[in-house]
Amino acid sequence: MLIRFLYRCITGVSWRLLFKAAYLWCFKGFFALRAFKKRNKKGILFPPFLFFSLTDRCNLRCRGCWVTPPNQVKDLSLESIENVIKAGQKNSVYFYTLLGGEPFLAPAMFDIIAKHPEAYFQIITNGFFLNQENTALIKKYGNASPLVSIDGFEETNDARRGTGSFEKAINGCRELQRQKILYGVAAVVTEQNFDDVVSEKFVQHFINLGASYLWFYLFRPIGIDSAPELAAEQNRIIEFRKKLLDMRRKMPIILIDTYWDAKGRAVCPASKGMSFVISPNGSVIPCPPLAVAKEKVQDNGGDFFKTVNESGFLRRFQEFIENHYDGKNSQGCIILDKPKELAEFLRKENVNDVSGRNFLDELETSTPKTSQYLPNDEIAENYWVYKILKKMLFFGMGAYG
Ligand code: SF4
Fold first, then answer.
1. Does the Cβ of 289 fall within 6 Å of ligand 1?
2. What pTM was estimated for this model as a whole?
3. Which of 26, 55, 173, 211 could form a disulfide with 106 if both were Cys (CB 3.0 to 4.6 A apart)?
4. What was the pLDDT predicted at 57?
5. pLDDT tens digit sequence for 177-229
6. Mean pLDDT calculated for residue range 364-393
7. Which mutation among 314, 318, 334 tests ligand 1's pocket best, with the greatest number of atoms within 8 A of CB?
8. Does ligand 1 lie within 6 Å of residue 267's CB atom?
9. Number of the ligand 1 atom closest to the C-alpha atom of 267
10. 269 close to ligand 1 (CB < 6 Angstrom)
11. How much of the chain exceeds pLDDT 90, in percent?
């Protein structure tokens, strides 16, 4: 697999972009993790990777999306972004994920990428704005990799993301391939699209379209149209794990999940402090779907390191998760497994609900679902390439989920 994958990279992706990714994403990612482990040992809380939710604007209304369509749109300010990146530079953090809403609708997106050639950015996008002009800019700067959200072939994708969204996203992939840009595809796994996306046919489809990685995400029923019936059942999650390991040995593409470590133990990235998210109003939230906070980027005169490291809430959130699972060894997704207990904890913390809805009521009324925490069904990685990539958290792409 590895030789075929590397061959695809050197024949299908611009060498300039490959070198930039190797240095800014992987090489610097290695040192970001090393610095993070050193901080951890000293009891310092500051993640190796960070997210910017640049805006809550979006042109789509996907079922189960955790972003609430805003009455008044919010865009994250450049000043807030600069404060975070400044703190990141002092702590070896160089990998940032840009999401939304739809990040291409955020006025600041290309300004950030252009202004920070020392950093690497992953852009999570619905693919509608990957036209010649925008992809040419991505190629020019070279320090960003789009991750295009596609949740099945046309019928299953459009059933959740809206009519015509599959074709638009595929056209975007074709333009990225034509420009020889290093990109990936993100697929949300649901009960409805399971047979479509967890298949060699789906993976091969994107190999043919020049994708270098495919990132699988387990559906979380959240939001105004939470669609709980789409959440994968336990047997499906185990089947997903088995198929993923099988495809990893065969398919010449990097297949990413963030739910299990190299030993097959469940992981909650937020509970390990691997990454936090800056929401459009500057709030520091544990992970994208968990839109609650007690701190903002603007706190402490914009000293973001101080704000995170001294956050009692983020530290207690980690303890809360560990106490509900197997401590630091293994954690599931508390949003799925124990939504009521999570709501109770968040009420006690008196958090700010920045979801634009009543998120705590949602949690209290939602039915628990199976998460990646399957202590009796742990399956370790069985291919050396992924044992290493897992230890490296895919250099940042494995730090949220
Ligand atoms: S596992 Fe759940 S709580 Fe943990 S980071 Fe992922 S979505 Fe958030």
1. yes
2. 0.96
3. 55
4. 93
5. 999 999 999 999 999 999 999 999 999 999 999 999 999 999 999 988 899 99
6. 93
7. 334
8. no
9. 1
10. yes
11. 91
Q: Is 244 in the pocket of ligand 1 (CB under 6 A)?
A: no
**How many angstroms is it from 1 CA to the middle of ligand 1?**
30
Cα–ligand 1 centroid distance for 343 (angstroms): 14
**What pLDDT is recorded for position 71?**
77
Residue with CA at minimum distance from ligand 1 atom 5: 270
Work out the pLDDT band at 395, boundaries 50, 70, 90: confident
Residue 281 CA to ligand 1 centre (angstroms): 21
- Averaged confidence pLDDT in the chain: 95
Average pLDDT over residues 245-253: 97
Atom of ligand 1 nearest to the CA of 401: 6
Counting from 1 in the atom list of ligand 1, the atom nearest the Cα of 332 is: 1
Å from CA of 195 to ligand 1 middle = 24
Task: For residues 373-396, give the mean pLDDT.
Answer: 91
pLDDT on residue 72: 79
334 lines ligand 1 (CB under 6 A): yes
Can you give the pLDDT at residue 121? Answer: 98
268 lines ligand 1 (CB under 6 A): yes
Residues facing residue 216 across a β-bridge: 187
